[in-house]
Design goal:
- The structure holds 2 protein chains of 2 kinds.
- By secondary structure, chain A is of the alpha/beta class.
- Chain A has a single domain, classed as Amidase signature (AS) enzymes (Alpha-Beta Complex).
- Chain A has 15 helices and 11 strands.
- In chain A, strand 2, helix 4 and strand 3 form a beta-alpha-beta unit.
- The model of chain A has no long low-confidence stretch (mean pLDDT about 95).
- Chain B is an alpha+beta fold.
- Classes of the chains: A alpha/beta, B alpha+beta.
């Protein structure tokens, strides 16, 4: 079930918000033993909001599109009074005394959160295996990872334990798990959605976005969280459009660019085939297909890992055991902080802090950080030029579909390579959506990525919506994913 | 002197904005520990900084007053280092593109004007304060952190190594403080730490172009400590070099009690702060128009005021310098002149009796209970001959104590000058009769004796007799 279907049922009084919330909680309790998407629950608050929504409906008041429809929130987004662990031992007991701006906005729309969902520790990873607190499985097959870092968000939506979810995307962390779990994930333009209250991984790349069942739901969630925020200096000023207006089933006259660099050697045959079919679908619907070249793509992964980790090394410096979070006692200050960070951070986080510290160090800054920043500029300029000729760019989300647990966790480099199709978007700050585009021969979902120009969410939503209408067979619900109402 | 002292100063000044640099917390000094804090200045996860625009305005003003270039494109950077008083373990500061570059400040020492170049000025956030259970960090069982000061806006003003003595260093900070006070952007209290000063000091043979190895001296919390600290350190280095030793690059602390600098930590290499652009703040663009608007809001600064006091008021260089050091003092003089007083006369009263009272009360002229208009009125009473200069001192003291107008005090206390010839003549005759010895002295050519006799008449009149008339009438009477 989707937000827009359930909203109609609520408004038509076919179903109460309380019934819906109870049903999703019951379903959640049934599937969580297998999926483990959640790190903490907020059922009581959820039921209270549901009752308030029902009261509004009873009084004949209008309700917001998301009102009373249970969602889930990635555990790096702060909700006042609820844990925000970042799936780390470091913040296992941290309860923020403030709301993220997106939560403030959603609370004004009677939003229901069933709890906080799992992720790679501090959003660092592509499988959610780096969570220090839980192992989330892929609802399509429990032997497979859900992707990451927003693995909990994607698995919750895919398994039906949430109708929608918030994730965050620094280098593909919304799109890749959405692709692996067969749901829709949208990374908005950098600055479209406020980052205030999103626990930072890499500040210049992080962006909160929706994970949802379909493109319409993604647009509805984006509508609910978009907007300028005075608390975030990098927030883009000005009014936002109603993104549901972009849900037009038509790509005639649209030019879809296919960047050849995204279709290189490492691409799995099943994924390649699905992309080719998608291109054919668009062609048949009247879109112009144009092959484009983005040669600087080859620098994106290196530039991304340098910039992201440099920022992360500084962003994560605050976790020192002094005033909040984990503290491992020791005889003196330096020892206390050292022990706290050694025990509190998992191996991937420690690896990234070390790398990030290294690239910023005297004597290396110019060779790494500065060069990466230059590459980033070139990548952005290349996208800008490409969007002079095309409306959207089409590419796979990842070279492969979901992999099995343990397959890549001891090989960081091959894990990093899974990000190759998603990181250029973050470096350029542009929006991109991941939508289901078929299934691999092993039955695991394949995701297609549509990229747009800055604040060009409408174009990618339109193209995604049109594909979804034309190819409904691509967007299936995972075996355990349907809530019984 | 064989050696020349070379000093460069880094001055940190807290800006007196209402709220902190990146959040809405108050900047007020004091307050119970950790009460002026919020998630942003505590650096809690997920919280983001937003620049207080007032900080930028103040920085531009200071930059213009110090003849700097204002950078139309400047940005914040992160200075990464671990210290428990720094909640994020990085300080948001400015590195390669600060708000101001290339300024200068003229100082006057020993009658000579010296131009001290200013390298740069940048904006940054202050850190918190460690409160140790013992007297020092190493002898304490525990330490608490007070984050009230965390995020208070700072300007760091960095000079070139252009000062050549402790006296010059002191004059530089004095002048800088004066300008910051004029601009009304900082409290500049060294004792409270709202102005802090680190000195980079080296010595070299006179005539040498190359800079010697420097030490950095911290903890000089007053102007005299600064001067003494620089003088001590320069002497220490000179003696060290003279004895064939070498200055070690290090950070030293000034111990005011012992009157010496002590080694804090050796600096083998530059600290690696891993600066990089602050991704949570967008770069700042400042238009020429913004800069010109700021220029228009600048008050008349000490140098300009000093020149005007000399030209318009005919004051001496020294008097103008004293009267312009504080904006409140200069404003007081201007207001007194505006109220009709003679500038030189007003300046004399201000430099004399009033300065004493203001200093004793530990206030500025702005808060003096005698208002400029009242001083002008009092001076007018002297000019009119209603009171003598001597009585005026008494009147002024009463004005200070009561806040009353001078004419009211003269009236109430019956201090009107006696100009009645008959009354004065009677007193003169009486004094001559009572002091035959002095009269004799005077007549035998001891001119000084007249002073004593005048004093006796004045005393007899309780100070109210017109001294000029007394003088004249005494002389007439004695020559009879």
């Amino acid at each position: 079930m989707t937000i827009h279907e359930l909203h109609q049922k609520l408004v038509n009084k076919e179903l109460s918000a309380l019934e819906l919330t109870k049903a999703v909680i019951a379903h959640k309790e049934a599937v969580e033993g297998q999926v483990h998407a959640y790190l903490s629950d907020s059922h009581e608050q959820a039921l209270a909001v549901a009752e308030a929504v029902d009261a509004k409906i009873a009084k004949g008041e209008a309700i917001a599109p998301l009102a009373g429809i249970p969602g889930a929130v990635k555990d790096n987004i702060c909700i006042k009074g609820q844990p925000a662990t970042c799936a780390s031992k470091m913040l296992e007991n941290f309860i923020p005394p403030y709301n993220a701006s997106v939560i403030e906005a959603l609370q004004g729309q009677d939003f229901i959160s069933l709890g906080k969902v799992n992720m790679d520790e501090f959003a660092m990873g592509g499988s959610t295996e780096n969570s220090a607190l839980a192992k989330t499985t892929n609802p399509w097959n429990a032997d497979y990872v859900p992707g990451g870092s927003s693995g909990g968000s994607a698995a919750a939506v895919s398994s039906g334990s949430a109708i929608w979810a918030l994730g965050s995307d620094t280098g593909g962390s919304i799109r890749q798990p959405s692709s692996y779990c067969g749901v829709v994930g949208l990374k908005p333009t950098y600055g479209n959605v406020s980052r205030y209250g999103l626990i930072a991984f890499a500040s210049s790349l992080d962006q909160i976005g929706p994970v949802a069942r379909d493109v319409t739901d993604a647009a509805l969630v984006l509508n609910a969280i978009t907007g300028h925020d005075d608390h975030d200096s990098t927030s883009i000023p000005g009014q936002r459009p109603d993104y549901t207006k972009a849900l037009v089933n038509d790509v005639k006259g649209m030019t879809i660019g296919v960047p050849k660099e995204y279709f290189g050697d490492g691409l799995h045959e099943d994924v390649r085939k699905a992309m080719e079919e998608a291109i054919e679908t668009y062609r048949s619907l009247g879109a112009a297909i144009k092959e484009v070249s983005l040669p600087t793509t080859k620098y994106a992964l290196s530039a991304y890992y340098i910039i992201a980790l440099a920022e992360a090394s500084s962003n994560l410096a605050r976790y020192d055991g002094v005033s909040y979070g984990l503290r491992v006692p020791a005889d003196n200050l330096v020892e206390m902080s050292t022990k706290t960070r050694t025990i509190g951070f998992g191996p991937e986080v420690q690896r990234r802090i070390l790398l990030g510290t290294y690239v910023l160090s005297a004597g290396y800054y110019d060779a790494y950080y500065l060069k990466a920043m230059k590459a980033r500029r070139l990548i952005k300029e290349e996208f800008d030029r490409a969007f002079e000729d095309v409306d959207v760019l089409l590419a796979p989300v990842a070279p492969n579909t979901a992999f099995k647990f343990g397959e890549k966790i001891n090989d960081p480099l091959s894990m990093y390579l899974e990000d190759i199709c998603t990181v250029p978007v973050n470096l350029a700050g542009i929006p991109a959506i991941s939508i289901p585009a078929g299934f691999a021969s092993n039955g695991m979902p394949i995701g297609m990525q549509l990229m747009g120009k800055p604040m060009g969410e409408e174009a990618i939503l339109q193209a995604a919506y049109t594909f979804e209408q034309a190819r409904p067979e691509c967007n299936k619900v995972a075996p355990t994913g349907e809530v019984q109402l | 002197m064989k050696y020349e002292t070379v000093v460069g100063l880094e001055v940190h000044t807290e800006l007196k904005t209402k709220s902190k640099i990146f959040c809405g917390c108050t900047t007020e000094f004091g307050g119970d520990q950790n009460t002026h804090v919020c998630p942003v200045c505590l650096g809690l996860p997920g919280c983001l900084p937003v620049l207080n625009k007032k900080v930028l305005d103040y920085a531009i003003k200071v930059g213009l007053a110090l003849h700097c270039d204002i950078l139309g494109f400047n940005k914040f950077d992160r200075k990464n280092y671990y210290y428990p008083d720094l909640p994020k373990n990085f300080q948001t500061s400015q590195y390669d593109l600060p708000i101001c570059l290339n300024g200068y400040l003229d100082i006057e020492v020993g009658g000579k004007t010296r131009r001290i170049r200013i390298t740069r000025i940048h904006m940054e956030e202050d850190a918190g304060k460690l409160v140790h259970s013992g007297s020092t960090i190493s002898t304490s069982d525990s330490s608490n952190v007070d984050y009230n000061r965390t995020g208070v806006p700072l300007l760091e003003i960095v000079s070139e190594p252009d000062m050549r003595s402790g006296e010059e260093a002191r004059a530089y900070v004095e002048k800088l403080r004066s300008i910051l006070k004029y601009l009304d952007v900082s409290d500049v209290r060294m004792e409270e730490g709202s102005l802090r000063c680190d000195a980079n000091i080296s010595v070299r043979l006179v005539g040498d172009d190359k800079l010697g190895t420097k030490t950095e001296i911290k903890n000089m919390n007053s102007l005299s400590a600064l001067q003494k600290g620089v003088e001590y350190e320069a002497l220490r280095q000179a003696e060290l070099v003279d004895d064939g030793g070498q200055v070690v690059q290090e950070t030293r602390t000034w111990d005011d009690g012992k009157g010496m600098t002590l080694s804090m930590r050796k600096k083998e290499a530059e600290n690696d702060y891993r600066y990089f652009p602050e991704p949570d703040l967008v770069p700042l663009t400042i238009s020429d128009e913004q800069i010109e608007d700021a220029r228009k809001t600048l008050p008349e600064l000490p140098d300009a005021k000093m020149a005007r006091f000399q030209d318009e008021y005919g004051l001496s260089n020294e008097d103008s310098r004293i009267l312009t050091a504080l904006r409140e003092t200069a404003d007081y003089l201007d207001a007194t002149v505006k109220a009709g007083a003679d500038a030189k006369g007003a300046a004399n009263w201000m430099l004399g009796d009033l300065s004493k009272m203001v200093n004793e009360a530990n206030i500025t002229f702005k808060d003096a209970p005698v208002k400029p208009e009242q001083l002008a009125k009092m001076m007018a009473l002297i000019t009119k001959g209603t009171i003598s200069g001597k009585i005026a001192k008494k009147v002024l003291a009463s004005m200070w104590d009561t806040g009353k107008d001078p004419d009211v005090i003269v009236e109430e206390q019956g201090l009107v000058q006696i100009t009645d010839t008959g009354a004065i003549e009677a007193l003169v005759k009486q004094v001559i009769a009572d002091n035959p010895k002095s009269v004799e002295d005077f007549k035998s050519g001891k001119g000084k004796a007249i002073g004593f006799l005048v004093g006796q008449v004045m005393k007899a009149s309780k100070g109210k007799a017109n001294p000029g008339m007394v003088n004249q009438m005494l002389k007439e009477e004695l020559s009879k």
